[in-house]
What we know:
The chain has 214 residues and is mainly α.
Amino acid sequence: MSQEAGRHEYHIAKNRLETMVDTIFAFAMTLLVLGIAMPQLSVSQAATELPGYLAKLLPQFILFIIAFLVLALFWIEHHRQFHYLRIVDPTILRFNVAILIFIVLIPFTTDVSGAYDGVMIAVLLFHVNLLIVGALFLGQWMYICKCSHLCDAEFDIAKKGYRFWILATVPSVAILGVVVAFFSPPYSLLVYILVPIIIGIRRFSSGRQEQTSG
């Protein structure tokens, strides 16, 4: 056995980790909808009371959509990071275990903040949850960039800075959400609308720079 093969003998297979990540992301995204609780009403009660109850659930519906889209963004970014990765070393494995812990927590913090959107501690749970997940993704990307021997030959050094700023978007917006929560907890949850706007602007700017340089 070669020294190189021996060094990577006990590394977990990349496809096994990707399968676990995909499964947990799908499970977490499905659990989000279970936090929207419907009342047990009779048919006669539903005709009069259901419209008002659905109106009260509007903040939870909005937060469900926000949390689902953020989870989808994290899943896509995980796929893009692993596109370049060839070897899963122990540090990458630890990053992913930590990421998945807080991904599984997102349905819980979404449920709590949606049910008590006017309570600061409730919405802070959601913001801090996303802040930690975003920071872990950013940390993992910085580690991948530092350890280029873990990546395929096609790994482009020019993409490092671009992906860094894309990944920094969610934790930055989460910090903004924490600040806004001290003034208006319900409206602080709407700051995540900025995420696709910022990423879209960043991608447009990057595309313009590539056209100019080309």
